[in-house]
Design goal:
Structural class: mainly alpha
Mean pLDDT: 90
Radius of gyration: 20 Å
Shape: elongated
Largest sheet: none
Strand content: under 5%
Length: 95
């Protein structure tokens, strides 16, 4: 597999990690009053968010597991597949 596909896989894993982090921050900073008003207006997403806010401990624990797993997978994959091409590219540079 070409190095750029492998780099793309690592980038995708980093983006998934970012999505987990964004989900975590959105639940931590959510304001229940605003969510409750939107729920009364018929917003199903606000109702789901209120459930997550009500059970933050379980949600945040699951998100942390996801962040750790994706980060570990990205590190293992990039170390195994990108170390050699990166080392060759860096050796071409003269300092």
């Amino acid at each position: 597999m070409a190095w750029y596909w492998e780099a793309l896989i690592v980038l995708a894993l980093v983006l998934v990690n970012g999505l987990f982090a964004a989900a975590e921050m959105s639940v931590v900073t959510a304001r229940p009053g605003i969510l409750e008003a939107r729920k009364r207006g018929g917003d199903r997403g606000a109702a789901a968010a209120l459930q997550l806010v009500a059970h933050r401990d379980r949600f945040l624990a699951a998100v942390q597991v996801g962040i750790t797993l994706v980060g570990t997978l990205a590190a293992v994959y990039s170390g195994a597949h990108l170390a050699e091409p990166l080392a060759q590219a860096l050796q071409r540079w003269t300092v």
